[in-house]
Amino acid sequence: MSSLLAVLDAIESEPAAVELRTRSYELLGDLAGRTVVDAGCGSGRAVAELAERGAHAIGVDLDPEMIATARRRWPAGEFHVGDAAELPLKTGSAAYYRADKVLHVLDNPAQAVAEARRVLAPGGRAVLLGQDWDMIAIDSDEPETTRRLVHAKADSLPSPRVARRYRNLLLDAGFTDPIVEVHTAVFSDDTALDLLRRITDEETWLAEQVERARANRILVVVPMFLVAAQAQPEATPQRPPHPHPPLR
Fold first, then answer.
1. Is the pLDDT of residue 23 over 80?
2. What is the pTM of this model?
3. How confident is the model at residue 1 (pLDDT cuts 50, 70, 90)?
4. CA 144 → CA 139, 149, 152, 160, distances in Å?
5. Distances in Å between the alpha carbon of 58 and those of 47, 110, 131?
6. With contact defined as beta carbons under 8 Å apart, do 106 and 84 qualify?
7. Contact, 201 vs 17, CB < 8 A?
8. Residue 101's closest CA among 219, 223, 189?
């Protein structure tokens, strides 16, 4: 857990990552006094940042150790152990919903998006953010091996290509007016090596990347999908017109 947190902290501290989180908050809307649920909140950084912007932010994560870390780091925050597919919130109780690098670890991302729709009030907004694991680009002298390793990592995840489906998942769940953005995260320092070690432990291939890092020649590029959409009220069934009383 400590090594994973160190990698996540390094990635989330990158200027591009900070800008991307900020953009995700902008796409939610006016945060002041609004309830925001951050599904898969991890160590709680986004919950703290949302609270700083005036939101009532609620972090939910299935991992008790992550929630313990979040509570330790951000003692003023509200955090719950819970499943993204079964959030501990009442129907229609949130103004905004956010899921950052979460849906790819779920067997059924559509269920989580449907749950987002349930907890959102009419007119609320959802923002989904994450990478497509098949689209990671790595500069290497062994392109075939690199391609094999990237796809092997992708295939080890429950939903590695879900990011390209964000728009359609939201539409299928009853959201409207989706906004789709693709941002590029570029890593050319030791953080790139940390990321590559999460992809593979193949020593020979990694040795080349270590040498690239020493020579300032390492490059990893990760497209990040950012999609926001509006929760529309469900249609209210129309009563049939009352028949006129018969004429007497």
1. yes
2. 0.89
3. low
4. 11, 9, 12, 20
5. 7, 21, 23
6. yes
7. no
8. 223
